[in-house]
Amino acid sequence: MIFIAWLNPDYLLLVNLFKNLSTDTNTIPEIVKDNHFPSLDGLRAVAIMMVILYHFGANHFLRPFHILINGDTGVNLFFVISGFLITTLLLKEKITHGQISLKRFYLRRALRIIPAAYLFLLVMVLLNTIYKFGISGRSFASAFLFYKNFPYQEEPYLGHFWTLAAEAQFYLFFPLLLSLNIKWYAVVLSVIVTAVPFISVLGFYHVHFLFNNAITNTVTQIIMYSFWKGPFIVLVGSLAAVLLFKGMISIKNKKHSYLLSFFLLAIALMISSKSFVFYTPYLSEFGSAMLFAWVVLLNLDKTNFLSTILQSRVMSKIGVLSYSLYLWQQPFIGNHVWQPWLRAFAGCSQATLLAVKLLMVFTLASASYYFVERLFLKLKLKYE
C-alpha cells in the first residue's frame, strides 16, 4: 500500500525549500506514468454525489444524526482532482517533448468542457423562453463566456457555472506560466497557496493591520472572495503534482498505510462540514483541500482499501458521468417542488421526491454523456 513520506526536515528551511522548488524537473514519477487513474474516477463519484445529495435535500434525513453534507466540499474535491490531473498531464508533456503545446491544450479543454455545457445552456435558453424564468441575458452571457464567478447577483438555474468559470480561468493563466518556466510556476504556486488562506483567515477575524486603509481592505476582500469563487483550490491540486514531480513528495509502499487514504478522506470531509464543532471558515476548507491532495496522491496506487472501493463498477460509472451529472443537477435543486417539471410530484414525500430527482438527473446526464460528451471526447483524443 502507499505511504507518503513527510518532507525532509531540510525543506523546513526557507532557503532549502526555495532551492528544491527551483530545481529542474526531468523525469516522470513511476506512479503517474499511466494515462488513466481509475481511483480518481471514484473520487469524482464521491464529489458529485456530495453535490447532488446536498442540492437535493438529503441533509433533511441526516440532520437528526447530526451529520450534514457540504456541497462546497464536493466542489473542492473536484477542483483538487482537476488541478492535479491537468498539471500532471502538462508536466508529462513538457518532460517528454521539451515543451507544452498550449494550442493543443486549449483545444482539448474546449472539447472537454464546452459541448456539454453549451448543450445545457441552450436547453435553458429554450426553457427560459417557454416558462418565463426571468434569466437575464447578462446571466446567460456570464455562463456562456465563463465568468459566472464574478461578484454579482446570481439566479438558481445557472448558478453552478461559477465552478466552470473558476476552472476556465485556471486553464487560461496557469498552464501558460507552466509552459514558460516550471521552476517559477512552482514558486508562484507555493506563494499563492500559502498566502491566500493566511490573508483570508486574518481578514475573516478582522485583524487590524489588514484594514488600515482602503487599498489593503480592498485587496483583502478580493483575496477572500477569490478563495471561495476563484481557482484557488484548483491550485492546491496543481501544487501537489509539481511537488510530486520534483521529488519533494515521495510515495512508498508500506503495509501499515492500507487504511491511510480512507481515514484522510474521512477527516477531510469531517473538518469541512459546517456541523463540525471546530469548523472555521477558510481554515477548514484549506485544511480539507490539502488532505484531498494527499488522498489523490495515495490513490494513484490501486491496492489500498479506499482505492478498492473507488474502482468498483458503480463508482467508476458515476465518476465517468460526473461532469454531465454536475451540469444537469442544477434544475432539480431544493427541498421543495418549485420547478414546473416537478409539479406532478408536489404531494410526494421528500424521500420519493429525492428518488425521482436522482432518476431524472441520471437519465439526463446519461443522455448528455452518450450522445454529446462522449463524441467530443473521442475527437479530443486526436490532440492528446
Description:
There is one protein chain. With 384 residues, this protein is an all-alpha fold. The chain has helices spanning 14-21, 38-55, 59-62, 71-97, 102-131, 137-144, 161-180, 182-204, 214-229, 232-245, 260-271, 283-298, 305-310, 313-329, 350-380, and strands at 2-5, 250-253. It has one domain. It has 15 helices and 2 strands. It has a two-stranded antiparallel ribbon. The protein starts with a strand and ends with a helix. 38% of the residues are buried.
Task: Kindly list the characteristics that best describe this protein.
two-stranded antiparallel ribbon; 15 helices; single chain; 2 strands; 384 residues; mainly alpha
How are the secondary structure elements laid out?
Layout: E1 2-5, H1 14-21, H2 38-55, H3 59-62, H4 71-97, H5 102-131, H6 137-144, H7 161-180, H8 182-204, H9 214-229, H10 232-245, E2 250-253, H11 260-271, H12 283-298, H13 305-310, H14 313-329, H15 350-380
Helix pairs in contact: 2-4, 2-14, 4-7, 4-10, 4-12, 5-7, 5-15, 7-8, 8-9, 8-10, 10-12, 11-12, 14-15
